[in-house]
Amino acid sequence: MAQISQVCADVKIQSSADKFYGFFRHKMHHLPQIFSKKVHSFEFLEGNDFTPGSLMHWTYDIVGPTKTKVKVADVDEENKSITYEAVEGDILSQYTLFRSKFRASDDGENGGAIVNWSFEFEKANDNIPSPEAYLEFVSKISTVLDTYLAVN
């Protein structure tokens, strides 16, 4: 029986948790313009905003060209957290379960925020690597997006 695993990373940013979360809650569709080399396209298939049940189609190149349908599984306004789950596409040939979650929280000591990213996954077989490349990518997105948010 396959095992559900998880990888996580915390990223320190200068933006507030509200501003970072607000981007992913309301403007995430801008990612293809900001990260055009890695995120190629985005469109809503069902729903028209980032609310639970909305279905999106993404094409990206993190570990190779990928097309994936993703649904918004949960939005937690109070905790500034959003959970996404792959429901169809290339990524599910490697992982029978692939769920990503981020949570932004203010860093009271130093200002700015801490963004916690986690990926919950179940490998299709033992030869599939853990999704460390995805974790590295979202960590980089966080720091580049932080710079973008400082001027926008």
From TrEMBL:
Residues 2-152 form the Bet v I/Major latex protein domain. It comes from the Eukaryota. SMART domains: Bet_v_1 (SM01037). SUPFAM superfamilies: Bet v1-like (SSF55961). One of its GO terms (biological process) is defense response. Pfam families: Bet_v_1 (PF00407). CDD domains: Bet_v1-like (cd07816). Belongs to the MLP family. This is MLP-like protein 34.
